[in-house]
Amino acid sequence: MHTNRQNINADFTCKNCGCYVSACSALSGVVHRNHCPYCLHSRHVDLFRAGDRLCACKSLMAPVGLTLKRSWDKYAAQRGGEVMLVHRCTGCGELAINRIAADDDLALILAILEDGSGEQQKIQRQCHAKGIRLINPTERLQILTRLLGDTGCKTYQHDLNYQVI
Predict the structure, then answer these.
(1) Other CB atoms closer than 10 Å to residue 12's CB: what's the count?
(2) Sequence ranges of the domains in the chain
(3) Structure pTM?
(4) Buried b (16+ CB within 10 A) or exposed e, 120-152
(5) What is the per-residue pLDDT across 65-87, written as a single tens digit (0 to 9) for each?
(6) With CB atoms 3.0 to 4.6 Å apart as the test, which of 19, 33, 93, 123 could cross-link to 23 if both were Cys?
(7) Over the stretch 115-147, which tens digit does the pLDDT of each residue have?
(8) Of 46, 48, 19, which Cα lies nearest the Cα of 32?
């Protein structure tokens, strides 16, 4: 049987950094690869739902923040859920959230967490308007623990303190 539907989980070359990206779920830990693990950029391809590939924009989507995935489990902790990347389209400004993959560059994810630029206030307002709640400074330790584990979080915190002195 032949269909016109394109493979939505195919290997690709990143339009931002030019690296080859494998869509193999054994490497990424996710079923659908939707961003580059080396620079964390994506492309604006989905219009109505994830995987539909109906958006005409096709511009780059830059990682601008982190959020926690909402849980539909009424017994789950209020701010439970996995850490997600927030992308903003460089063409039209649309926002999207994407699951972090196992092979994503952890240093870039931590840099997004540590970002204190003036641009963050504008991004916060835009996310709030779309119902996306960015991680705030009081949740920093919780997120570091989720990303690095207890031991890795303590080491990271120690290294940051050592660099500041």
Answers:
(1) 14
(2) 12-134
(3) 0.80
(4) eeebbebbeeeebbbbeeebeeebbeebbeeee
(5) 999 887 655 555 555 678 899 99
(6) 33
(7) 766 677 888 889 989 888 888 777 888 888 888
(8) 46
